């Protein structure tokens, strides 16, 4: 709906294109729409799996990207109100980041443990300390 209003605003009168007047905002909008699409697709994929921590994090990211896209369109249509809504979105972003701290910490610690295990396995292989295996693949 906001995209249609943007077309109407730019089509009437002698107003230049938003790419001319608000180039950075339009580029941010395009990048944000791609990020929103990717996050939403990831949420749909993770919804079927049992990874609830990653699902929760990606769902928050998709919600933030979706609202940011709407806010950027509002900023193009009504700049003063757009700045106000962007400030409100920034407060909401901080709230979401602080609420998801434990989830992010669990995910990061799990990732560090996984990488540490893989690095130890790699170092053992490089040193030749891996146990010889017989033909069955058993040590």
From TrEMBL:
<feature type="transmembrane region" description="Helical">
    <location>
        <begin position="80"/>
        <end position="97"/>
    </location>
</feature>
<keyword id="KW-1133">Transmembrane helix</keyword>
<dbReference type="InterPro" id="IPR053258">
    <property type="entry name" value="Ca-permeable_cation_channel"/>
</dbReference>
<feature type="transmembrane region" description="Helical">
    <location>
        <begin position="57"/>
        <end position="74"/>
    </location>
</feature>
<keyword id="KW-0812">Transmembrane</keyword>
<protein>
    <submittedName>
        <fullName>Uncharacterized protein</fullName>
    </submittedName>
</protein>
<keyword id="KW-0472">Membrane</keyword>
<feature type="transmembrane region" description="Helical">
    <location>
        <begin position="26"/>
        <end position="45"/>
    </location>
</feature>
